[in-house]
Design brief:
The chain is an alpha/beta fold. It has seven helices and eleven strands. Strands 3, 4, 5, 6, 7, 8, 9, 10 and 11 form a nine-stranded mixed beta sheet that branches. A two-stranded antiparallel sheet has the order 1-2. The longest helix is centred in the N-terminal third of the chain and has 13 residues, at about 70-85.
């Protein structure tokens, strides 16, 4: 286990040596989320050690957020992260253990917003690690795109929003699963490692029972020709 400083948000995060760890996707997704007035009851599915939930609680003072993860050891770390960041007395934030596929855990149509950074790799392809934390973080053995879509649609209020980041190579599969459960894409932003490389991930916002109209935003490039962060990435990392 390590104790790492996340300057974006001024947080210290305990996280496992192997398994789900903070990366640039964490910061990009937390920056992507929008919270509207009076629509502030959110849940983070697959919250791991709670970094995104804590970032958002610091950013949006009216936000009530629940973090859910299937792995009790990660929820234990998330609750420790509440304490070490002096947020354990903040009643807006809570972390619970549970499987998002279990329909009895979360109340239907209860949330204004759902956030998730799901595992990018399909469990059908590739070698899966014997380390449970690592395999769950990388492969969709506990959460396929369809699992996420079904859960989000079930627990979101009508017109509630899903904010997520995912593998660009699986875009068509992802959109198909979302629309199957009445989650309509409203904003998509493609992320590129460099200007001469293909997109590897995308950010997306969906609205349950949303109408037509999809906005494809300008792309975000992570590194410039000198392998330094671009100005847009530096702006994202600013508090």
């Amino acid at each position: 286990m390590t104790n790492d400083e996340l300057k974006h948000g001024n947080l210290n995060i305990l996280q496992p040596d192997e398994g789900p760890r903070i990366n640039i996707d964490t910061v990009l997704l937390s920056d992507w989320v929008k919270v509207r007035p009076r629509h502030n009851n959110f849940i983070e599915l697959g919250c791991a050690t709670g970094a995104i939930s804590l970032l958002l609680a610091r950013k949006f003072k009216n936000l009530k957020i629940t973090g859910l993860d299937i792995q009790p050891e990660l929820i234990e770390l998330a609750n420790e992260n509440l304490k070490i960041n002096n947020l354990d007395s903040d009643s807006r934030i809570k972390f619970i253990t549970g499987d998002l596929r279990n329909k009895n855990i979360l109340n239907s149509e209860n949330f204004d917003g759902v956030i998730m950074n799901p595992p990018y790799a399909s469990s059908i392809n590739g070698r899966i690690s014997e380390n449970n934390l690592k395999s769950s973080a990388r492969h969709d053995i506990n959460c396929t795109p369809e699992d996420l879509a079904e859960c989000a649609s079930r627990i979101l209020k009508s017109k509630g929003r899903l904010f997520t980041v995912f593998n660009s190579m699986r875009l068509s599969e992802f959109l198909f699963c979302m629309e199957k459960f009445k989650l309509i894409p409203k904003r998509i932003k493609f992320i590129f490692p460099k200007s001469d490389r293909s997109s590897n991930i995308f950010l997306a916002e969906f609205i349950k029972d949303g109408g037509e109209g999809l906005e494809i935003l300008p792309p975000l490039i992570i590194y410039d020709e000198n392998n330094n962060y671009t100005q847009e990435i530096n702006n994202v990392y600013k508090i």
